[in-house]
Amino acid sequence: MVLLVIITGIVIQITNQTCQIWRSSTAKIQTFQDARAGFEAMSRKLSQATLNPYYDYYNSNNQARSTVALGLSGSAALSALAGFVPSTYDRYSDLHFISGQVAAFLLQGSDGNTSHITTQTHAVFFQAPCGYSANASYQDLDNALNACGYFLLFEDAKASVPPHIANAPGYHPRYRFRLMEMTQPTELLGIYAATGTAAQNDWFVKNAVAQSRIIAENVIALVLLPKLPASEDSPDGAGSGVSAAPNYNYNSRIHLNATLDPSFSSFPGDKFIAFPMTGGTASGSRHAQLPPIMRLVMIVIDEVSAARIQASGTTPPTGIDLTQTTLFTDASKLDTDIVQVENICNAAAGNLTGNTTRLKYRVFSTDIIMRNSKWSSK
Question: What ranges do the domains of the chain cover?
Answer without folding.
Answer: 22-49+93-369, 54-92
